[in-house]
Amino acid sequence: MSAYIIFIRDRARDHALLETYGPLAQASLASHAMEPLVVYNPVETLEGAEVDGVVMLRFADSAAARAWYDSPAYVEARKVRFLAADYRVFIVDGIG
Questions:
Q1: pTM of the predicted structure, to 2 decimals
Q2: Cα(21)–Cα(5) distance, rounded to whole angstroms?
Q3: How many domains does the chain fold into?
Q4: Which residues are paired to 3 by β-bridges?
Q5: Which residues contact 61 (CB under 8 A, 6 or more apart)?
Q6: Three-state SS for 86?
């Protein structure tokens, strides 16, 4: 069953660091099979707090998603993300 990692950026604090994070995150995905579905496309908030950006990646299953998230390359990349912005990140299983 497909699984999705969804990143919701609530607030960017350091745009220069976000520019550093992007290539690090992308490089960390090179050895992980996934499909980007949403990468900071325009967002229309219908309910709740406005968001600054959204990324949604599809993996084969939650184990594959977690393997990427916990990979050494992404662990290093997310250290930069933690400094650059406030995000909510979660894994959700798809249907079927």
A1: 0.93
A2: 17
A3: 1
A4: 59, 93
A5: 1, 2, 3, 93
A6: strand
**Amino acid sitting at position 57:** L
Q: Which of 24, 4, 39, 3 is nearest to 82 (CA)?
A: 24
Between CA 3 and CA 64 the distance in angstroms is 8
Which residues of the chain fall below pLDDT 70? none
The secondary structure of the chain in percent helix, strand, coil, rounded to multiples of 5, reads: 35, 35, 30
Show the domain range for 88.
Answer: 3-93
Using CA atoms, how far residue 45 sits from 12, 49, 87, in Å, is 17, 8, 16
Q: Where are the alpha helices (DSSP H) in the chain?
A: 15-28, 62-69, 72-84
Residues 6+ positions from 85 with CB-CB distance below 8 Å: 9, 10, 11, 12, 13, 14, 17, 18, 52
Instruction: State the CATH number of the domain containing residue 86.
Output: 3.30.70.100
